[in-house]
Design brief:
single chain; alpha/beta; 13% strand; globular; binds glutamine; nucleotide-binding; AS_sf; Amidase_dom
Length: 453
């Protein structure tokens, strides 16, 4: 704990933590010391982790990277976090993230941008940017993030660490501040696949507080073995052939494909005919869900309240939300409200739901023939701070949304996926490679990720 506290202090410029629980972590460490001596310590005894600022931890403030949760204190602890605490994890602090987990660069946080430790002029990815940098820079052993469209895997790729998004419903969402409820997943970020697998195992499983959690048995993921037969692996042809993907990333991905073939596995290209509909479907549905989820932040029930005459309720809502939410969150609430409005509902929301089903069916067909689907995690390595924010990209938010092209599919269909490090580019920037597996095949996913690490 002391060593991490020193490092956190030395690396303040990275802005990875929004709050550090120094004294509490020390006390927790003392308690665990006693438990270790008594032989009663849990399975995570001594593991020092950080948690993304969207996870409720009773008695601690939680802000979702936003001004609107000013002065708000969590009233209860997220199920996933409680299960880690029950196994004697030490929580060292709360990690910076994009506001309400909306973003791919960690630049939309009310607490300012996070910097990539490989190059502080570059972004760490988002939205779990603080969580990924904290592991990258040795500020904690592992982090717990959330992944709605890539927010665990994309920053893991940009920071050269492991990010695991489980199957939708594998881990309870109780206590996770909702962004898009039918996409949101809690997931670990760690230095090794083993650490990520152990954290997953402990967080996973049924929970009375979240009816969408599966009752499928949880497995000892870290002990998973690959089947004793050649694997069948599909790779996304565009990931290694499209000129829209950085040349070094294409090369690095191709090299892994060649290695897998040399090891006797079948590795074949697939084309997703619906690839171009992934981002539109994702952004219509997630903004729709977000506009509904975020309606609870009204200036009355939580956190920030604008100064308005007491008699004017509508003005209070309007002013609190205008002042409390940042530009990207407001943009998405407006987009989502539009997609759900009476005259456009069928044209956008219903249509996107239908396309979601088609994407799921197309993905299922891939997995009828293959064990895994491989692709780069991201089309480019970490970009410069400010490079894709509205001002510099000609006010085009789509530039940022394109960073998610390879990660959103797993959330649209609810499948598990992992990003592992795959070398660096000529500037020393980390590159990630992603593997996706069928629902609840986390054991196989962990096994192949370990074999490829
Ligand atoms: N970058 C994506 C978005 O902005 C994904 C975010 C996430 O997974 N939370 O929606």
């Amino acid at each position: 704990v002391e060593q991490y506290l020193v490092r956190i202090d030395e690396q303040r410029h990275l802005n990875a933590f929004t709050e550090v629980y120094a004294d509490e972590a020390r006390q927790q460490a003392d308690r665990i010391d006693h438990k270790l001596a008594a032989g009663t310590a849990g399975r995570l005894a001594g593991m020092v982790i950080g948690i993304k600022d969207v996870l409720n931890y009773a008695g601690h403030s939680v802000r979702a990277g936003s001004k609107i949760l000013d002065n708000f204190t969590a009233q209860f602890t997220a199920t996933a976090i409680q299960r880690l605490l029950d196994e004697d994890v030490i929580i060292i602090g709360r990690q910076n993230c994009d506001e309400f987990a909306m973003g791919s660069s960690n630049e939309s946080s009310f607490f300012g941008p996070v910097r990539n430790a490989a190059d502080p002029n570059r972004v760490p990815g988002g939205s779990s940017g603080g969580s990924a940098v904290a592991v990258q820079a040795g500020l904690c052993l592992a982090s717990i993030g959330s992944d709605t469209g890539g927010s665990v895997r994309q920053p893991a790729a940009f920071c050269g660490v492991v990010g695991l998004k489980p199957t939708y419903g594998r881990i309870s969402r109780w206590g996770l501040i909702a962004y898009a409820s039918s996409f949101d997943c809690i997931g670990p970020i760690a230095n090794t696949v083993d650490d990520a697998a152990l954290l997953l195992e402990i967080m996973a499983g049924p929970d009375d507080f979240d009816s969408t959690v599966s009752s499928q048995p949880v497995q000892p993921y870290a002990q998973a073995q690959l089947p004793d037969r050649p694997l069948r692996i599909a790779y996304l042809r565009d990931g290694v052939e499209s000129t829209g993907v950085d040349a070094r990333i294409r090369e690095a991905t191709q090299r892994r494909i060649d290695e897998l073939r040399a090891a006797g596995h079948t590795v074949e290209p697939v084309d997703l005919s619906l690839l171009k509909y992934l981002l539109p479907t994702y952004y219509i549905l997630t903004t729709a869900e977000a506009s509904s989820n975020l309606s609870r932040f009204d200036g009355v029930r939580y956190g920030y309240r604008a100064d308005t005459p007491a008699m004017d309720l509508l003005a209070l809502y309007k002013k609190s939300r205008t002042e409390g939410f940042g530009a990207e969150v407001r943009r998405r609430i407006l987009l989502g409200t539009f997609a759900l409005s009476a005259s456009y509902y069928d044209a956008y929301y219903t249509k996107a739901q239908q396309v979601r089903r088609l994407i799921r069916e197309e993905t299922e067909r891939v997995f009828e023939q293959y064990d895994f689907l491989l692709s780069p995690t991201t089309p480019t390595p970490a970009f410069q701070l400010g490079e894709k924010t509205s001002r510099r990209s000609g006010d085009d938010p789509l530039q940022m949304y394109l960073a998610d092209i390879f990660t959103v599919q797993a959330n649209v269909v609810g499948y598990p996926a992992v990003s592992i490090p795959n070398g660096t580019d000529s500037n020393g920037l980390p590159i990630g490679i992603q593997l996706m597996a069928p629902p609840f095949a986390e054991s196989a996913l962990v096994a192949i990720a370990k074999a490829m690490s």
